[in-house]
Amino acid sequence: MKVKTLLLLLALLCLVGCKGVKTEEKQNTDIEPIEKVDVREEKDKVVIQAEQGKMEISSDAGQDLDLPEGFPAEKLPVYPKGSIVVSECVNDVYNVGIVTNDNVESIYKYYKKNLNADSITSDMLSGESANLFLQDGEKAGGIMIMPNNLPYDFKYVIFITYGE
User: Fold this and answer.
1) Cβ-contact 147, 128 below 8 angstroms
2) Among 35, 78, 106, 157, which is most exposed with the fewest C-beta within 10 angstroms?
3) How many domains does the chain have?
Protein backbone atom coordinates (compact mmCIF):
# COMPACT_ATOMS: atom_id res chain seq x y z
CA MET A 1 0.00 0.00 0.00
CA LYS A 2 2.83 2.43 0.85
CA VAL A 3 4.49 1.72 -2.50
CA LYS A 4 1.21 2.38 -4.32
CA THR A 5 0.86 5.72 -2.51
CA LEU A 6 4.37 6.79 -3.52
CA LEU A 7 3.82 5.66 -7.09
CA LEU A 8 0.61 7.67 -7.27
CA LEU A 9 2.60 10.71 -6.08
CA LEU A 10 5.08 10.01 -8.89
CA ALA A 11 2.16 9.82 -11.30
CA LEU A 12 1.00 13.27 -10.19
CA LEU A 13 4.52 14.56 -10.82
CA CYS A 14 4.34 13.06 -14.30
CA LEU A 15 0.96 14.65 -14.96
CA VAL A 16 2.47 18.04 -14.16
CA GLY A 17 4.97 17.34 -16.95
CA CYS A 18 2.21 16.33 -19.39
CA LYS A 19 1.55 19.92 -20.41
CA GLY A 20 4.79 19.90 -22.34
CA VAL A 21 8.41 20.86 -21.97
CA LYS A 22 8.75 24.46 -23.02
CA THR A 23 11.67 25.97 -24.86
CA GLU A 24 12.29 29.70 -25.28
CA GLU A 25 11.53 29.51 -29.00
CA LYS A 26 8.25 27.63 -28.77
CA GLN A 27 5.53 27.86 -26.15
CA ASN A 28 2.78 25.24 -26.17
CA THR A 29 -0.37 27.16 -25.25
CA ASP A 30 -2.88 24.79 -26.88
CA ILE A 31 -3.83 22.34 -24.15
CA GLU A 32 -6.34 19.78 -25.31
CA PRO A 33 -9.02 18.72 -22.84
CA ILE A 34 -8.98 15.03 -22.04
CA GLU A 35 -12.47 13.77 -22.72
CA LYS A 36 -12.29 9.97 -22.51
CA VAL A 37 -9.95 8.20 -20.13
CA ASP A 38 -9.69 4.46 -19.59
CA VAL A 39 -8.21 3.42 -16.24
CA ARG A 40 -7.56 -0.25 -15.64
CA GLU A 41 -5.55 -2.38 -13.28
CA GLU A 42 -3.41 -5.05 -14.87
CA LYS A 43 -0.96 -7.45 -13.30
CA ASP A 44 1.48 -5.36 -11.20
CA LYS A 45 0.47 -2.02 -12.80
CA VAL A 46 -2.24 0.56 -13.38
CA VAL A 47 -2.76 1.75 -16.96
CA ILE A 48 -4.32 5.12 -17.79
CA GLN A 49 -5.16 5.46 -21.50
CA ALA A 50 -6.48 8.59 -23.22
CA GLU A 51 -6.50 9.73 -26.84
CA GLN A 52 -3.52 11.97 -26.08
CA GLY A 53 -1.38 9.11 -24.74
CA LYS A 54 -0.82 6.47 -22.13
CA MET A 55 0.61 6.22 -18.60
CA GLU A 56 1.61 3.08 -16.74
CA ILE A 57 2.32 3.01 -13.01
CA SER A 58 3.95 -0.03 -11.45
CA SER A 59 2.43 -1.34 -8.23
CA ASP A 60 5.68 -3.20 -7.51
CA ALA A 61 8.83 -1.05 -7.34
CA GLY A 62 10.96 -4.10 -8.16
CA GLN A 63 9.05 -4.84 -11.38
CA ASP A 64 10.22 -2.87 -14.43
CA LEU A 65 7.70 -1.34 -16.79
CA ASP A 66 8.46 -1.01 -20.50
CA LEU A 67 9.55 2.39 -21.78
CA PRO A 68 6.83 4.32 -23.61
CA GLU A 69 6.75 3.57 -27.34
CA GLY A 70 9.16 5.88 -29.16
CA PHE A 71 11.11 6.92 -26.04
CA PRO A 72 14.58 8.09 -27.17
CA ALA A 73 16.67 5.73 -25.00
CA GLU A 74 19.68 6.38 -27.23
CA LYS A 75 19.61 10.02 -26.04
CA LEU A 76 18.33 9.51 -22.49
CA PRO A 77 19.40 6.08 -21.28
CA VAL A 78 17.62 4.34 -18.43
CA TYR A 79 19.75 4.10 -15.30
CA PRO A 80 21.00 0.48 -15.37
CA LYS A 81 20.64 -0.15 -11.63
CA GLY A 82 17.08 1.13 -11.38
CA SER A 83 13.51 -0.02 -11.89
CA ILE A 84 11.08 1.83 -14.16
CA VAL A 85 7.93 2.51 -12.10
CA VAL A 86 6.28 5.22 -14.25
CA SER A 87 6.12 5.14 -18.04
CA GLU A 88 4.20 7.78 -19.96
CA CYS A 89 3.87 9.52 -23.29
CA VAL A 90 1.19 12.19 -23.64
CA ASN A 91 1.09 14.64 -26.55
CA ASP A 92 4.61 13.54 -27.60
CA VAL A 93 6.09 14.37 -24.18
CA TYR A 94 7.79 11.44 -22.46
CA ASN A 95 7.95 10.98 -18.69
CA VAL A 96 9.74 8.10 -17.01
CA GLY A 97 10.13 7.49 -13.27
CA ILE A 98 12.91 5.21 -12.04
CA VAL A 99 13.74 4.11 -8.48
CA THR A 100 17.16 2.96 -7.29
CA ASN A 101 19.27 2.36 -4.21
CA ASP A 102 22.45 3.83 -5.69
CA ASN A 103 23.83 7.09 -4.34
CA VAL A 104 23.04 10.45 -5.93
CA GLU A 105 26.62 11.07 -7.07
CA SER A 106 26.78 7.78 -9.02
CA ILE A 107 23.45 8.49 -10.71
CA TYR A 108 24.47 12.06 -11.57
CA LYS A 109 27.84 10.97 -13.01
CA TYR A 110 26.14 8.26 -15.09
CA TYR A 111 23.77 10.74 -16.71
CA LYS A 112 26.43 13.43 -17.14
CA LYS A 113 28.54 10.88 -19.06
CA ASN A 114 25.80 9.09 -21.02
CA LEU A 115 23.36 11.81 -22.13
CA ASN A 116 23.41 12.17 -25.91
CA ALA A 117 21.85 15.58 -26.57
CA ASP A 118 22.96 18.73 -28.37
CA SER A 119 23.78 20.44 -25.09
CA ILE A 120 23.34 20.28 -21.34
CA THR A 121 22.00 23.74 -20.54
CA SER A 122 22.16 23.39 -16.78
CA ASP A 123 23.33 20.83 -14.27
CA MET A 124 23.61 20.72 -10.52
CA LEU A 125 24.67 18.24 -7.87
CA SER A 126 23.86 19.52 -4.41
CA GLY A 127 23.80 17.36 -1.32
CA GLU A 128 21.22 14.64 -1.83
CA SER A 129 19.69 15.85 -5.12
CA ALA A 130 20.77 16.62 -8.65
CA ASN A 131 19.38 17.73 -11.98
CA LEU A 132 20.45 18.06 -15.58
CA PHE A 133 18.55 20.02 -18.21
CA LEU A 134 19.19 19.56 -21.89
CA GLN A 135 18.40 21.04 -25.27
CA ASP A 136 18.20 18.76 -28.28
CA GLY A 137 17.23 20.68 -31.42
CA GLU A 138 13.60 21.74 -30.93
CA LYS A 139 13.19 19.35 -27.99
CA ALA A 140 14.18 19.84 -24.40
CA GLY A 141 14.28 17.67 -21.35
CA GLY A 142 15.38 17.20 -17.82
CA ILE A 143 16.58 14.59 -15.38
CA MET A 144 15.79 15.20 -11.74
CA ILE A 145 17.26 12.98 -9.03
CA MET A 146 15.49 13.26 -5.70
CA PRO A 147 15.89 11.42 -2.41
CA ASN A 148 13.10 9.16 -1.25
CA ASN A 149 12.11 10.72 2.07
CA LEU A 150 9.29 8.26 2.66
CA PRO A 151 9.66 4.88 4.40
CA TYR A 152 10.11 2.78 1.25
CA ASP A 153 12.86 0.38 0.30
CA PHE A 154 14.66 2.54 -2.26
CA LYS A 155 16.85 5.61 -1.81
CA TYR A 156 16.30 7.76 -4.91
CA VAL A 157 13.73 8.62 -7.55
CA ILE A 158 14.96 9.60 -11.02
CA PHE A 159 12.42 11.51 -13.09
CA ILE A 160 13.10 11.97 -16.81
CA THR A 161 11.02 14.22 -19.07
CA TYR A 162 11.62 14.92 -22.76
CA GLY A 163 9.66 16.49 -25.62
CA GLU A 164 8.74 19.68 -27.48
Assistant:
1) yes
2) 35
3) 1
